[in-house]
Amino acid sequence: MPTIAQVCDIDNHGLRWAEQQRTEDEQCLCEHAEYAFFYSRAFGRACAGGSLPSAARGAASEPGTVGQAGAGREGASATDASGAAGSPDNGSAAHTAAASRGSPVEHSEPHEPQPGLHDGTDEARLIVRFNRYAPAAEHRASLLEALGPESPASWSWIDRHNPAARHPTDFALLSTSPDGEEGVRRRLQSAAGVRGVHADQRYTGRLAWAPEGELQGLVLDLAGAGGADGAAGAAAEDPGDAAADGPDEAVFAVTRRPGRMVTRFSSEDLEGDVTAEGAAEMEEELRQLWRVGAEGGAEQQDGLDPAGPRRRMMAAGLESGGGRHGPWSAESEEELHHGGRAGGAQQGASTGGLRGGGSRRQLHLAPHSGTVPVMLEADKLWKLGYTGKGVRVGIFDTGIRPDHPHIRNIRERTNWTHQNSLSDGLGHGSFVAGVVGGQDGQCPGFAPDVELLTFKVFTDDQVSYTSWFLDAFNYAIMVKVHVINLSIGGPDFLDQPFVDKVLEVTSNGIMLVSAIGNDGPLYGTLNNPADQNDVIGVGGIDNWDNIAGFSSRGMSTWELPRGYGRVKPDVMAYAKDVQGSKMQGGCRSLSGTSVASPVVAGAVCLLASTVPEEARAAVLNPASMKQALVEGAVRLNNLNIYEQGNGRINLPNSMAILQSYAPRASIIPATMDLTDCPYMWPFCRQHLYAGALPVVVNATLLNGQGVVGRLEGPPVFVPLDAGGRLLHVAFEWSDVLWPWSGFLALYIRVREAGAAFDGLANGAVECVVVSPPAPGEDQPRRSVVRMPFRARIGPPPPRNRRLVWDQFHSLKYPPAYLPRDNLDVKSDILDWHGDHPHTNFHGLFNSLRDAGYFLEVLGSPATCLDASQYGALLVVDAEEEWYPAEVAAVEAAVRGGMSLLVFSDWYNVASMEQMRFFDDNTRSWWTPATGGANVPALNDLLAPYGLALGDAVIHGATTIGVSGWGGVGQKTAEGCNRVVLNHGSDIAKVPAGGWLHKAQMSNAAKKGSQSAQFGFLGAVAHGSAGGHAVAFSDSNCLDRSHMTHNCYDLVSRLLARLLEGKADQGVLDDAAKLSEAYVTPNYNFTTPERRPPSEYNFTEVSYVLSHPPADGPSGLPACFPNGACVKMPASYTPCQVFLGKVAEEEPRGYSNGSTAGVKLAAAAQQSAAAGGSGASVNHAPVHAAGGKAEAGVNAGGATTLGANATGPVLVVRGGGSPRSAVVLTWGLGPGPLLVLGGLLGFALVLGLWVRRTGFGLSSSPRGPGASGASGGARRIGWGSMRQRGSEV
Question: Which parts pass through the membrane (predicted)?
């Protein structure tokens, strides 16, 4: 049911603020049954507009009257204490704010009727994007010309009454009837000036935390059908009930697609792996917690755990007590013991509530003690006078009250929703604003003098629309905010209007910070927009610098299946038990990456204020700020790069970088050391060797020189030792670096001459980034990026230890609706984690490596593989079709000794129809593209061996193995391994002489059927070289996403049985061998069929079907750069060079124009970077062809010298932070340089010792970023100079 989008317009003119706030809280969503119930429980009376007859709809509502859904105006202008109302002309409401911060500008525009999603009608809303900005009237005229006159049967223009309406816009919003929508879309797509047509999607979020005030204990989720992640299922609107023997509706029920869901606050209970049952239990416990306050009178807690702040105090090495510091007032210190000016003693007491108990305790913390800003050393910047002054931050959230006691400078409040309220009725927006810019002593923000602009883009019941965000983003650009915090996210990185607008926002220089997501501990769960290169994506850690269990992990999945993901998150920040502001004052403690995001946004505001105002325009941009954050970050122990990105932010380090910043380019990761474990997992787990498929690493280029850039010439790899000369590195890169960033992909191979080599290989990757000159400059900006590289080369493993993973045949959401594999999981209906051994199958990857197997990944068709090198091909959870040439190539490989292992998943056409549903977010029917796996396509692959999968959806548990087996694994008492199937396809056909394992299983595809003996593991030998084809019913036991029980040991047993000839593994043994052919007796078996294109056009989501071979259906498909070089076409030059068929030039680096120069610079860089990792970036402008450079002045004003000049050359880490060292271009030999280096090193150690011991020195603060032995928020061992850059 669509959400009713009308809020009662309460006449609150002339009321004191407290009463006015109460009436804002009492607004109701008229005619919404669930909300009417909620309202009656919250306020003790019936919803004022809920009982009016439907005939009243459409009557215009005037200010002071109750409006109805679909009424003439959705809401009215916000009013102030004296009754003055804002108007569409100026959009201002004259709420009297605190005198200390002046009068904020406020906008809560009245809305015209908005049919479609907002009023319960069947009309759809379409976003029409244009190629240019123009007044709305001009766009409307162009649509009239393209579509003809407006009419209810065709289309209607929707006015958007908000602050952006007075400015030119780049999109229009219209409503269409269901019958006319297709025609309108078709005509618009061919209309001049139209960029695209999209549904106005709804974004919803499930409350996973207790809201504040009268909402507490009552609001579950009023977004319809369970909301964001869905608590309740919304089955397909089928005209009739399912047949008695059809699919089990309870199994195949779905929850509405979440769209761009709010990154929700997460509780402590989300730590670690959570089973489907555990998640359901936690969800029910949370619902019960919310209901307590409404039904039983038990006092609701705020979710605060006093142990959290006290743990933080201990971690910080601080004691209670202490005086006022920096920007905090005496009044703020007093509030520490009274819970804030607005909340009084009761709210202060509530902040110390114990979970699950009835008693409350008051937290007596000194100002700043143990708070997140102090832990991140913000107090050091405060002492220097930096407080965020002059920085404008936009908080895109649920709003804030006009005179919140914690916020000093509320510059402007705007409302973009259908609610008639600028204030926060949920608590989320207030909390986020407090973390960024609060001034309360108990829960201080990072930048108390920041200018806060709140954008209410979510209603109090967590509903938003794409169009609201587009208008709000446009307005943020117009009012020139510097920073935006976006504590939301979702899996849909193909929501084109939203993604494109984010790109536009950052291209205008706005630094956008976003939460990476709360879908951890699962890998491949990055949320958008935090996964975009131009956005600062923030993950979460706890008080001891361990990753928070709920924090989403990388890698990015945009590039899959044919590429490799990028490093994300960018940085980490505290996300557990973080204290922030309550709606009306006082503090509360919450957790989630939506908390970590404002932590970093506040830090960005504070860091921006450390740059002199006159230099900010030239220095600050999304790339330079990200460079400062990632280069100053502290790497965390025992976390890999896809968990922590570049580490925890460190404000003194980042401040030092910004204050000496000169525009430049850099790369992430700064150093590519594939031997660095565990940080460079998964690469560090497997050495490089000759004959392997290329190892692909996707680096990110940051360009602080300008919003647009490009590479001046191709990147180069410069070997620095004998091992490095055995490597061949090919590249792919962004044609244009926009905005502020791009990618650089490395394809790393070992030459044939390296087959006998065992040792380290060192080199460097170099490229030149060029951007247009800045205002006042007449030469393009150039920056040489240099990334040191290290890997270990080892001997090639034997064939029976080499496995290849088929990545090419994996599909995911988006763009298609790929349903979940584990049908027990109701809260996550999409298969969106990438299906890669480095994302949701990372447990299997680690298990195989532990067992001594080497796993390579193929992102190209199977015809691009040299199968003679491998013992087995793993095809896991494949949804893609197969080229006929692939099927033939695999069959030949199996005949030649390679084994094929297929791990399938469920597939049943009737069940897929059961999972079809109408999505209110997109106003369209969602039909699964296939089942958990594409069984018809897999049967094509298995056909040459006489194996076939059926369409029974089996689930249950069994055991497999040998009694008394003593290996490592999960075993029954008898020593046999337990195997759990969470909805897989049955093995329906096996030829005589094959093997079949059967077990008693239930069939979810046939409701009410009795359990029966179903085959779940079948195999057959093929040819005389030892090759086998194996099919297993289910891949869920290998998938970490929703695993209930792993079957890694089963895979190891199968490999030992097939590749090493070990017959004592308890699988494919004589007891399971068939003397005659098997066909399932449980149903009338016919090979499962594909749906016809009239029901679902699979070509729209299939690369195979949409890219037929150039030389006919049976021809060879194209290979991608990750294929085997011996299979690549002659037109692919890198492989021709690798194979020695094309002569290779001596690598020429960009640093000094020659190989010798590169080596000398590398040696100097390694010496200079002894205190921290990172590649060096030389700012001297160079000519890639000639290798010579001229002296000049870079954009930051620093003198740069060419390769033939004398004097110092500025060198910074590839991570980018400037070094105090210089590269000497004098003609000194190795001996003098060594002596000079020793003297400098001795002086450095002596200086550090003197400063450490305080020998004869004052103990006063040592300047910007200084860190004393006492008073620091966190004492970290100084073994890593990068961790405490301020002390070096």
Answer: 1226-1250
